């Protein structure tokens, strides 16, 4: 059976997922994260439906089969265009298609999608319905609790009602409002207060929905707390990127009850053949190593590791052996040959 035809247990994987993050969760980042955890659900960066359908940018759908289970996040607001983009994503082999209704960036706002769609729940429902009709894989939604002066206690249940009626069975809720005027995307991730209790109330109100929480979660202990409180899943963003080993290396035993904690040294070594293959295909070293800078965050040698990778990745003639050299610098030499 081809990998694209294999069915993965996305529902189980969604107990813990890594958030879609623009400029961060590309295919190289996801490959690293998959080496750290066999179980977590990975998401692409947001890909716009117009880029796929009108721009023909199908290269944005490329990924390594070893990344499964992996979800494609789409941005857009035209039901027909999103349906076609979802079909392209399903054909490419993604295990889930997710609609972005949470990103507050200027470029997303100007395209009439992302968090601004919280103001248009009927349109979101139309988009979800069209996407669900176009593909066999599950269509999910990632949203905020509201935007601007909306009252989340009122608008969020109305929004969830609409998308549930349209066929959405799984939703990821970023437990903050988004302010579409006056706050930058960075400020929108930090300034609006978190309201995780509202997300818990939504799960109680919509028991048929699979509800994941996102926003401000920085540890597996927090993630377990939300799961034990009754939520179905937890999505972690920046913490998983900046400290991938701290979040993901123990995710399988702690969250899923499988496997053992991964050693970041071994993961770094496993990245070497992947990097070599990327370079052989004409790629650049820093395209991969930039995602590895935080692999030893909070551990002895973390600064030396970051410096070795960030300074060395742009030097002429340097290849995948940079990683082995960086490991030696932090006292983790290559294993002896048998």
Please describe what this structure looks like.
With 338 residues, the protein is of the alpha/beta class. It folds into 2 domains: 3-256, Aldolase class I (TIM Barrel), CATH 3.20.20; 264-329, Four Helix Bundle (Hemerythrin (Met), subunit A) (Up-down Bundle). It is 43% helix and 15% strand. The chain has 17 helices and 8 strands. It has helices spanning 10-13, 27-36, 49-53, 79-92, 106-110, 121-134, 152-165, 185-188, 196-205, 220-228, 238-242, 244-248, 251-256, 264-280, 285-289, 302-312, 321-329; strands at residues 16-18, 41-48, 70-75, 96-101, 138-147, 170-178, 210-214, 233-236. The longest helix is centred in the C-terminal third of the chain and has 17 residues, at 264-280. The radius of gyration is 20 Å and the shape is globular. The chain starts with 9 loop residues before the first helix and ends in a 9-residue tail after the last helix. 47% of the residues are buried.
What would a concise description of this structure say?
With 338 residues, the protein is an alpha/beta fold. Helices cover 43% and strands 15% of the residues. The protein has two domains: 254 residues, Aldolase class I (TIM Barrel), CATH 3.20.20.70; 66 residues, Up-down Bundle (Four Helix Bundle (Hemerythrin (Met), subunit A)).
Low-confidence stretches: none
- Specify the number of helices: 17
Biggest sheet character = 8 strands, parallel, barrel
Q: Report the CATH superfamily of the largest domain.
A: Aldolase class I
Order of helices and strands: HEHEHEHEHHEHEHHEHEHHHHHHH
Distance from N terminus to C terminus (CA atoms, Å) equals 35 Å
Which band does the percent of strand residues land in? 15-25%
What's the CATH architecture of the largest domain? Alpha-Beta Barrel
**Derived structural class:** alpha/beta
Helical residues, percent:
40-55%
- Biggest sheet: strand arrangement: 1-2-3-4-5-6-7-8
- Determine and state the CATH class of the largest domain: Alpha Beta
Task: Report the C-alpha radius of gyration, rounded.
Answer: 20 Å
Overall spatial form: globular
């Amino acid at each position: 059976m081809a990998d694209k035809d294999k069915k993965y247990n996305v529902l189980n994987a969604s107990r813990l997922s890594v958030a879609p993050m623009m400029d961060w969760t590309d295919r190289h980042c996801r490959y690293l994260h998959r080496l750290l955890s066999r179980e977590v659900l990975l998401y692409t960066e947001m890909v716009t439906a117009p880029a796929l359908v009108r721009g023909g940018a199908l290269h944005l759908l490329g990924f390594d089969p070893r990344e499964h289970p992996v979800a494609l996040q789409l941005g857009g607001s035209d039901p027909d265009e999103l349906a076609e983009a979802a079909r392209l994503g399903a054909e490419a082999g993604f295990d889930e298609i997710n609609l972005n209704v949470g990103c507050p960036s200027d470029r997303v706002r100007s395209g009439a999608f992302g968090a601004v769609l919280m103001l248009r729940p009927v349109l979101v429902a139309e988009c979800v319905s069209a996407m669900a009709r176009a593909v066999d894989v599950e269509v999910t939604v990632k949203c905020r609790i509201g935007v601007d002066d909306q009252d989340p206690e009122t608008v969020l249940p109305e929004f969830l009602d609409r998308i549930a009626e349209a066929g959405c069975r799984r939703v990821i809720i970023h437990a903050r409002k988004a302010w579409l005027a006056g706050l930058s995307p960075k400020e929108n991730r930090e300034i609006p207060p978190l309201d995780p209790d509202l997300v818990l109330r939504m799960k109680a109100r919509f028991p048929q929905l699979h509800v994941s929480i996102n926003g401000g979660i920085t540890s597996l202990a927090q993630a377990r707390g939300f799961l034990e409180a009754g939520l179905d899943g937890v999505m972690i963003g920046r913490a998983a990127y900046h400290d991938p080993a701290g979040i993901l290396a123990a995710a399988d035993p702690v969250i899923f009850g499988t496997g053992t904690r991964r050693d970041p040294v071994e993961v770094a070594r496993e990245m070497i053949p992947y990097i070599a293959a990327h370079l052989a295909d004409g790629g650049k070293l820093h395209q991969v190593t930039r995602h590895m800078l935080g692999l030893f965050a909070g551990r002895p040698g973390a600064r030396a590791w970051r410096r070795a990778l960030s300074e060395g990745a742009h030097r002429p003639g340097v290849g995948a052996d940079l990683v082995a050299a960086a490991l030696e610098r932090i006292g983790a030499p290559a294993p002896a040959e048998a």
